[in-house]
């Protein structure tokens, strides 16, 4: 992994043929500092969002020492990189072998569930251990989220009443969790989820030791401008206070996108232009899955390469390198009109899921990853005026 002052310098030095992924350590420092200094509890980084070793090392070094893991492989990765980190196995559907190995080999004591069968699986696989912290995940509305996660996970309140009573008999500590969906665009979703926790407490008579408000904290995109993250923290804090619990519960959250989105970008090269379609060397089977499958519009800028760029801007669509016609990113991506073969474009906000979703379909794959020191194209943590000069042209 090389280190460059900017994407401009990287392109000038490497003249890359394949896509290049960029990591910005300073961006990770800013986002980690925000959650460490502002969230009134523990922040668990959701490893699935970006499991790159450099990214995780930076997150750990910047004060986040708790991690939300979803698989045995993620557990092994974290134990390798940050052996002293505390890991929470928050996937609500796990195989018995993973639970057993997580508990007995990797000393993980925190497990999530949302069904009686999963609860029994955890208890059986840990041999009815007496030092478990069990998190009951309840259903929460995802109406304000760009990506709905409510269809697979979460117990209804009627189901949860009996589940929490049973879990209470076996657990050292009880947690209640929910997830408002990925890229949540309104803070009210969190207070609604916390209100559902209040309903469960009222009906079950059990107060949790821990409340987990999950992930969903948003990042910024050209067509998605959420409220400041401070508003989300305030909404959560005020909703917790309204529960008026006898004993103040520990509060945790699971940010992923909001921690890493700004830190990553991909440099692509134009291989062909057909009118308003740019054929680039990365796509939906690479780091741009969300751009194609979910039609996320990512910020873009042209990397100057000694060419006089047109002041006329044009809405482009991107076509990826594979032979699959679904390898298409509608956009629009607003760029100078005179782009052609050989021009380089940086696509931002790919720190979340950009590396995670890559495949080797058709043999197109790049693991060329470098660090850069310049600012991201868009940011929730830096003032807009600092970034205006970065937009469209690098």
Instruction: Spell out the CATH superfamily of the largest domain.
Output: Alanine racemase
Q: Would you give the CATH topology of the largest domain? A: TIM Barrel
- Give the termini distance in whole angstroms: 21 Å
How many distinct folded domains? 2
* Reported CATH architecture of the largest domain: Alpha-Beta Barrel
Chain-averaged pLDDT = 94
Molecular structure report:
- The protein has 394 residues and is an alpha/beta fold.
- It is 30% helix and 23% strand.
- The protein contains twelve helices and 20 strands.
- The strands form three sheets. Strands 1, 2, 13, 14, 15, 16, 17, 18, 19 and 20 form a ten-stranded mixed sheet that branches.
- A hairpin with a 2-residue loop joins strand 13 and strand 14.
- The longest helix has 17 residues.
- The protein is elongated, with a radius of gyration of 22 Å.
- The chain starts with a strand and ends with a strand.
Task: Give a quick rundown of the structure.
The chain is of the alpha/beta class and 394 residues long.
Keywords, separated by commas or semicolons:
single chain, TIM Barrel, 12 helices, 10-stranded mixed beta sheet, Lyase, Ornithine Decarboxylase, Chain A, domain 1
Topology of helices and strands:
Elements: E1 3-4, H1 7-14, E2 20-23, H2 25-38, E3 42-46, H3 53-61, E4 66-69, H4 72-81, E5 86-89, H5 96-104, E6 110-113, H6 116-125, E7 133-137, E8 145-147, H7 157-170, E9 173-177, E10 182-184, H8 188-204, E11 210-212, H9 229-242, E12 250-253, H10 257-260, E13 264-274, E14 277-280, H11 289-293, E15 300-303, E16 313-319, E17 328-336, E18 344-347, E19 369-372, H12 384-387, E20 392-393
């Amino acid at each position: 992994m090389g280190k460059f002052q900017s994407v401009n310098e990287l392109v000038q030095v490497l003249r890359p043929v394949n896509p290049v992924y960029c990591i910005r350590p300073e961006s990770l420092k800013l986002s980690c500092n925000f959650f460490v200094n502002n969230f009134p509890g523990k922040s668990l980084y959701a490893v699935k969002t970006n499991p790159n070793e450099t990214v995780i090392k930076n997150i750990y070094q910047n004060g986040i020492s708790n991690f939300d893991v979803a698989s045995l492989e993620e557990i092994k990765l974290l134990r390798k990189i940050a052996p002293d980190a505390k890991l929470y196995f928050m996937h609500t559907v796990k195989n018995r072998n993973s639970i057993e190995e997580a508990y007995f080999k990797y000393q993980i004591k925190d497990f999530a569930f949302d069904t009686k069968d999963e609860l029994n699986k955890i208890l059986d696989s840990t041999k009815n251990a007496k030092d478990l912290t069990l998190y009951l995940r309840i259903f929460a509305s995802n109406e304000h989220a760009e990506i709905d996660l409510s269809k697979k996970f979460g117990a209804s309140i009627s189901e949860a009443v009996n589940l929490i009573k049973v879990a209470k008999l076996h657990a050292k500590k009880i947690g209640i969790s929910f997830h408002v969906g990925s890229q949540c665009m309104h803070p009210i979703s969190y207070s609604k989820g916390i209100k559902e926790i209040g309903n469960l407490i009222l009906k079950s008579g059990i107060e949790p030791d821990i409340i987990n408000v999950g992930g969903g904290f948003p990042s910024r995109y050209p067509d998605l401008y959420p409220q400041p993250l401070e508003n989300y923290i305030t909404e959560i804090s005020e909703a917790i206070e309204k529960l008026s619990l006898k004993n103040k519960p520990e509060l945790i959250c699971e940010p992923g996108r909001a921690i890493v989105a700004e830190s990553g970008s991909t440099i692509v090269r134009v291989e062909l232009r057909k009118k308003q379609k740019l054929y680039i060397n990365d796509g939906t089977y690479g780091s741009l899955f969300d751009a194609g499958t979910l039609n996320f519009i990512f910020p873009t800028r042209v990397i100057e390469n000694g060419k006089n760029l047109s002041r006329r801007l044009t809405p482009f669509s991107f076509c990826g390198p594979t032979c699959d016609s679904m390898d298409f990113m509608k956009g629009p991506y607003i760029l100078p009109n005179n782009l052609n073969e050989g021009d380089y474009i940086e696509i931002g906000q790919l720190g979340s899921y950009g590396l995670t979703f890559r495949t080797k379909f058709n043999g197109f794959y790049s693991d060329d990853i470098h660090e850069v020191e310049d600012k991201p194209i868009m940011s929730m943590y830096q003032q807009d005026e600092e970034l205006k000069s970065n937009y469209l042209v690098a």
